[in-house]
Design brief:
The protein is mainly alpha-helical and about 525 residues long. It folds into two domains: about 5-200, Fumarase C, Chain B, domain 1; about 205-315 and about 345-410 and about 415-510, Fumarase C, Chain A, domain 2. About 55% of the residues lie in helices and about 5% in strands. The protein has helices at about 15-20, 30-50, 75-85, 95-110, 115-130, 145-155, 175-180, 190-195, 200-230, 240-245, 250-260, 265-275, 285, 290-310, 335-365, 385-400, 425-455, 460-470, 485-495, 500-510; strands spanning about 5, 25-30, 90, 130-135, 135-140, 160-165, 170, 320, 325. The strands form four sheets. The protein has a three-stranded antiparallel beta sheet with strand order 4-6-7. The protein has a two-stranded parallel ribbon with strand order 1-2. α3 (about 75-85) packs across α6 (about 145-155). It is elongated and about 90 Å long. The model has no long low-confidence stretch (mean pLDDT about 95). Pathway: Amino-acid degradation; L-histidine degradation into L-glutamate; N-formimidoyl-L-glutamate from L-histidine: step 1/3. It holds the Pfam family Lyase_aromatic. It is found in: Cytoplasm. One of its GO terms (biological process) is L-histidine catabolic process to glutamate and formate.
């Protein structure tokens, strides 16, 4: 069984994916629990003192000036969680909730939040039991933490609210915790605040998105190579020395992938060696593919750097410093994460737009160099891939709307105490939809390029032939019109899993690394 150790340093991208998607077991390091206990003693001293401390003996947000007597401070934390568990809308995906809980657990285990060890242990127990709090789409403004989503998680740890059990059944949290032998948390001073004051929701989604986009961009290079071949294009524009003249790392990697995949192609050789070849210069969607996908690769590298820094961060307010001070701060503001989430959505929209343009060229007899209209078996009787391109166009239109930045907006809250917010959670939600759309557009291009190569019958590069063969395992070759939607879904699964990259690499050997 996979296992992730928490409390010895930042969790990794691989840790987040393992816990979120593959139910890896979480273990908290013993030394981390010792550090948590030591920090807790500072909070207990402050709780017994007369001086007001935010989150310990005061209210929250605009109510921070409200002093809370000692006998009501435990109720303060419980009330905080209940009132902030105010999400609404669709249920958030299980993998997002698990990623969010793991990242909050990692911060709690840092020993800088002031919670008791039992809080850390309870979150680990929930993850290991496969218990997933029901979290809703709306409720976070991406500042002061992903408040509502994290509050729903904390509510479940208290044995309240609703959860999904290990079998995925939605049930009352109290029942499921009792069955798992997990004692519901009874919150003490500062603990409710520590459970909700973090960027864990948007960060978890960023980490998952980075993982998925790495697969999709590698796949984009492979599919673009199929399209170059299927449209009788040239590989000369992907020459290493040409790309060295503009030394963006991602561009060089994308060009190297396309060279490797096209190596040995008789169609590409014809373009290069036949003096009668009528194609003088390929369209931008073919010729500039490495420049666009490569720029997206570099954008992803930057986003991953931001995510790595955030994974190494302790996000809470107030925070307990190593010398025992309890200090208010603004580290919960989601701007760094929100910006790169939006940046990735722009790149995703552009990569998908170029993919759709390549597909469209295949379908137009004026531009596809000898293929039938819409790649139809009997044009007029059959429509071929005509409406597949409509699907792509609709998705691309949606991706352009999703590329509008969420982080450029802000809506004040909490009686103007929280007068600027990041909306990073919203940026994360739309990026997830963007990635789904990109995979669907690429699936359409893969099906179309494979069909075109089969129709040409001129042979293929060994690597592109392997990719087409992989597609043919789940989708039939050219023929009369048939129910197309299941074929798109089958290709979507290949694209999302990275199977087409693996097929090409089975011939070429390891391709340039995914970001």
């Amino acid at each position: 069984m996979l296992e992730v150790l928490v409390g010895t340093g930042p969790v990794s991208f691989e840790d987040v994916v393992a816990v979120a998607r593959h139910d890896a077991r979480v273990t908290v390091a013993a030394e981390a629990l010792d550090a948590v206990a030591a920090t807790r003693r500072h909070i207990e001293k402050l709780a017994a003192a007369d001086r007001p401390v935010y989150g310990v003996s005061t209210g929250f947000g605009a109510l921070a000036t409200q002093h809370i007597p000692s006998e009501k401070r435990a109720q303060l934390q419980v009330s905080l969680i209940r009132s902030h568990a105010a999400g609404s809308g669709a249920e958030v995906e299980r993998e997002v909730v698990r990623a969010m809980m793991l990242l909050r657990l990692s911060t709690l285990a840092s020993g800088r939040t002031g919670v008791r060890p039992v809080v850390v242990e309870t979150y680990a127990a929930l993850l290991n039991a496969g218990i997933t709090p029901v979290v809703h789409e709306y409720g976070s403004l991406g500042c002061s933490g992903d408040l509502a989503p994290l509050a729903h998680c904390a509510l479940a740890a208290m044995g309240e609210g609703e959860v999904r059990d290990a079998a995925g059944v939605r049930r009352p949290g109290a029942e499921v915790l009792a069955e798992a032998g997990i004692e519901p948390l009874v919150l003490a001073e500062k603990e409710g605040l520590a459970l909700i004051n973090g960027t864990d929701g948007m960060l978890g989604q960023l980490v998952l998105a980075c993982h998925d986009l790495g697969v999709l961009l590698a796949t984009t290079d492979v599919i673009a190579a199929l399209s170059v071949e299927g449209l009788m294009g040239t590989d000369r524009v992907f020459a290493e020395d040409l790309h060295a003249m503009r030394p963006h790392p991602g561009q060089g990697l994308s060009a190297a992938t396309m060279r490797a995949v096209l190596d040995g192609s008789p169609i590409v050789a014809r373009h290069r060696d036949d003096p009668d070849c009528p194609i003088v210069q390929d369209a931008y969607s073919l010729r500039c593919a490495p420049q666009v996908t490569g720029a997206a690769r570099d954008t992803l590298v930057h986003a991953m750097l931001v995510a790595q820094r955030e994974l190494a961060s302790v996000i809470d307010n107030p925070v307990v410093t190593p010398d025992g001070r309890v200090e208010s701060n603004g580290n919960f503001h989601g701007a760094p994460v929100a910006y790169v989430l939006d940046f990735l959505a722009i790149a995703v929209a552009d990569v998908a737009s170029m993919s759709e343009r390549r597909t469209d060229r295949f379908l137009d007899p004026k531009r596809n160099h000898g293929l039938p209209p819409f790649l139809a078996d009997d044009p007029g009787v059959d429509s071929g891939h005509m409406i597949l391109q409509y699907m792509q166009a609709g998705v691309v239109a949606e991706l352009k709307r999703l590329a509008v930045p969420a982080s450029a907006d802000s809506i004040p809250s909490s009686a103007m105490q929280e007068d600027h917010v990041s909306l990073g959670w919203h940026a994360a939600r739309k990026l997830r939809r963007s990635l789904d759309g990109l995979a669907r557009v690429l699936a359409g291009e893969a099906l179309t390029a494979a069909r075109a190569l089969d129709l040409r019958g001129l042979g293929s590069a060994p690597a592109t032939a392997a990719v087409v063969s992989r597609i043919r395992e789940v989708v039939q070759g050219p023929g009369t019109d048939r129910f197309l939607s299941p074929e798109i879904e089958a290709a979507f699964a290949l694209v999302s899993s990275g199977a087409l990259v693996d097929a090409a690499a089975s011939v070429t050997g390891p391709l340039p690394p995914r970001p």
